[in-house]
Q: What sequence folds into this?
């Protein structure tokens, strides 16, 4: 059991507050989705939580240790991160790219058998085994997204922090990836924090939803509480209706205005 | 054997073969019988002229090839090269400026130190000017600025040159050549080049991780500050030491990694060693070609590489049009 906690996180970019005092604590074994309109500060908060950005004020602690004080390699072994831009600079094979997830573990002798096994498991879990020999730059956006999820899984991290990992995936693969995140949390006891834009998808895969707006936490709780029409109105400026669907609550956007 | 290993083996075989040709070829062809016969006048040609030249070709080729591969890996830009982006020109400017420091500064190590300082300044400026976004366009523009600055500095040095000997010396640095180099120059340059190459090999894994962008690499525990410094010092050592002894030989670091990338699997860290050996092959071959070109005086190697590399650079740029737009 592990805890990742943010204490009064503040980040200013170009003088403008992007994250304005966020207080949140995350437990492993749960899937948390961070939602909010463009510019709400979701990605910045996630980068702070991953120890990749130094907040202007506040602290992020992983089991009472400040993430910024951790050795980069040690931190990378515990916290896996998927950036929003699915940048892949060179025409490498998918398996090589997934293998980069082993970087924090590799010694001078190169990939060990253990590393190879972890890569195989990750590719299998993300359903990209058949893409292993493909040049990543020739893959579709969704395929590449899944390869990048496998890349993060290959590091076998205790925590997975992913910035819009489901964007560009088709509905079937969104569901698969969502199920994968749930299995990672509920069966393997990892902590999963993802930022998302699809409200119904978030309601379906997350145990807990944090809605951000203008750098602050607007709502925090289980999907049924956090995704209320009132919160939708304040966060996005839309009139929304929550419908009970077969797979979970569906959020219908009725129109503009609150 | 993997494709990468086959490629490396083939490049090593090529290096050995070309080294033997390099020892034998030139205005005077030397048969193998002259290699062991000390009384043969051609023995001196082989061991006092061609041996240093051949070793230097391998060393400088390896230095430039690996520096190019490392710069490309770090910037994620296939157009990065110490020659094309002004690093070599700044090293040459550093070497040229020692001419103005008085006679005591004509020591070879002073020249080498000045060249490496010029290269280091160039790499640091390049990394600073291109910023973190590493867009190809800003990078090329940063290179253009450096080339212009170095060119202006050298032109100023030329116009203020105290004597014709200095003019000649400056021109030698601008147009790289391996002709008439002594074993002393080899002894000075090789340790520096070796040190630079070893440093660059240390950041191989960091360069691999940079395939995922800077945030991706940092999330994998790569220390970007250390990587940037090691890259800068490694390139300064390799490119600076090369320029100090041979003058500017451009495009090696551009052509070689580009040709080898598809053969070794595109992983930037895995491209470093093949690019070093490939650089040695290219410079050896070009130097042999230069010697065999029928002309009143030998064509300068730097000029020959520019003739070859210019169109290559242009073709590469055309093939990248879509990425740049």
A:
């Amino acid at each position: 059991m592990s805890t990742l906690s943010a204490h009064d996180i503040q980040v200013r970019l170009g003088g403008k507050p992007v994250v304005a005092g966020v207080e949140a604590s995350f437990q492993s074994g749960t899937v948390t989705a961070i939602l909010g309109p463009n510019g709400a500060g979701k990605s910045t908060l996630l980068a702070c939580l991953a120890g990749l950005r130094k907040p202007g004020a506040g602290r992020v602690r992983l089991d009472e240790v400040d993430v910024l004080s951790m050795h980069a390699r040690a931190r990378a072994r515990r916290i896996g991160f998927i950036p929003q831009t699915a940048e892949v600079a060179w025409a490498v094979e998918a398996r090589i790219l997934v293998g980069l997830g082993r970087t924090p573990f590799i010694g001078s002798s190169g990939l060990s058998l253990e590393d190879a096994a972890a890569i195989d498991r990750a590719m299998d879990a993300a359903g990209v085994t058949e893409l292993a020999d493909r040049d990543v730059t020739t893959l579709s956006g969704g395929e590449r997204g899944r390869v990048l999820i496998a890349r993060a899984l290959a590091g076998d991290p205790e925590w997975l922090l992913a910035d819009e990992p489901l964007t560009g995936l088709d509905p079937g693969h969104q569901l698969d990836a969502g199920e994968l995140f749930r299995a990672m949390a509920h069966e393997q006891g990892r902590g999963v924090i993802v930022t998302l834009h699809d409200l119904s998808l978030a309601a379906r895969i997350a145990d807990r939803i944090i809605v951000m707006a203008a750098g602050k936490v607007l709502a925090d709780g289980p999907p049924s509480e956090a995704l209320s029409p009132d919160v939708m109105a304040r966060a996005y400026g839309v009139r929304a209706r929550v419908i009970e669907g077969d797979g979970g609550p569906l959020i219908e956007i009725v129109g503009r205005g609150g | 054997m993997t494709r990468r290993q086959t490629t490396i083996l083939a490049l090593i075989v090529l290096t050995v073969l070309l080294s033997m040709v390099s020892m034998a070829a030139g205005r005077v062809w030397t048969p193998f019988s002259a290699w062991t016969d000390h009384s043969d006048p051609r023995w001196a040609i082989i061991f006092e002229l061609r041996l240093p030249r051949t070793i230097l070709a391998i060393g400088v080729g390896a230095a430039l090839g690996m520096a190019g591969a490392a710069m490309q890996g770090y910037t994620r830009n296939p157009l990065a090269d110490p020659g094309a982006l002004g690093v070599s020109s700044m090293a040459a400017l550093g070497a040229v400026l020692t001419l103005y420091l008085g006679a005591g500064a004509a020591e070879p190590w002073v020249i080498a130190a000045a060249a490496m300082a010029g290269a280091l300044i160039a790499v640091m400026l390049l990394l600073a000017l291109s910023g973190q976004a590493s867009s190809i366009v800003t990078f090329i523009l940063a290179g253009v600025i450096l080339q212009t600055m170095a060119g202006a500095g050298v032109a100023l040095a030329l116009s203020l040159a105290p004597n014709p000997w200095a003019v000649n010396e400056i021109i030698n640095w601008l147009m790289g050549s391996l002709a008439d180099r002594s074993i002393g120059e080899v002894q000075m340059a090789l340790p520096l080049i070796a040190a630079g190459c070893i440093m660059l090999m240390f950041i191989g894994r960091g360069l691999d991780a940079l395939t995922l962008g800077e945030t991706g690499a940092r999330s994998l525990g790569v220390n970007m500050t250390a990587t940037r410094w090691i890259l800068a010092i490694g390139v300064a050592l390799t490119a600076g030491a090369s320029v100090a002894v041979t003058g500017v030989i451009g495009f090696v670091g551009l052509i070689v990694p580009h040709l080898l990338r598809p053969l070794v699997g595109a992983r930037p860290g895995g491209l470093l060693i093949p690019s070093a050996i490939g650089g040695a092959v290219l410079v050896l071959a070009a130097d042999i070609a230069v010697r065999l070109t029928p002309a009143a005086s030998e064509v300068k190697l730097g000029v020959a590489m520019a003739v070859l590399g210019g169109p290559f650079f242009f073709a590469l740029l055309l093939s990248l049009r879509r990425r740049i737009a």
Q: What stands out?
A: Chain A has a mean pLDDT of 92. The longest strand of chain A covers residues 16-27. The CA atoms of residues 10 and 180 of chain A lie 32 Å apart. Chain A is about 30% helix and 30% strand.
